[in-house]
Design a protein that fits this description.
By secondary structure, the protein is an alpha/beta fold. The chain has helices at about 5-10, 25-30, 65-70, 90-100, 110-120, 135-145, 150-165, 180-190, and strands at about 15-20, 40, 45, 60, 75-80, 85-90, 105, 125-130, 170-175. It has a single domain, classed as P-loop containing nucleotide triphosphate hydrolases (Rossmann fold). Bound molecules: guanosine-5'-monophosphate. Guanosine-5'-monophosphate (5GP) binds near residues 47 and 87.
Length: about 190
Amino acid sequence: MISASDKKQITGQLFVVSGPSGSGKSTLCRAVVGGDDVYLSVSATTRPRGKEEVDGLDYFFVTEEEFRRKIEAGELLEYARIFEHYYGTPMESVLHHLHAGRNVILEIDVQGAVQVFRRYPQAVGILVLPPDDQALRERLLRRGRDDEASINKRLAQAQTEIEQAQKEKHYRHIIVNDDLEQAVAELRRLVAV
Ligand code: 5GP
């Protein structure tokens, strides 16, 4: 739990960036965290590591047993089960960076974001949307990590996720990721210290 004394000491701002997979939100988040003043949280997940992914950098890849232990120990700020795998935000590093006055970005899905908004209502939600469905499909194909069935599943999930997010008042900003450079500039303006 984020205690009252924790909240008092926090000087950094917490941002939650969500959007359907293939909206380009990871690329955007990575592009804005070059410096020392913004920290991008590294989640724990039980999903298998992708070819290009690095443990501890992209995710902490853990077993289901280890993930359950983290839930029970209260180490996660939020967690969700997405496409048959668990994903969650380690609380300690997020609090550490907020206390140090850094802004923190969580790149998480809407189910997880709702938990964060409930525990920490000052968090600012940013929703990243693809320009259209075709662009989403092309990005998922280009990424080469999913087969056809998985892409269809992600596209259906995308629609549900967008609808859920639009009902959530904490998503105060929407970025349409049409032109990458422009989208990066918009996100940077929002999260800059
Ligand atoms: P992927 O498997 O494509 O890396 O991620 C799948 C989905 O999980 C994405 O929508 C991503 O934002 C979300 N996700 C990644 N980390 C977390 C997390 O710690 N918590 C939650 N709730 N969602 C996450």
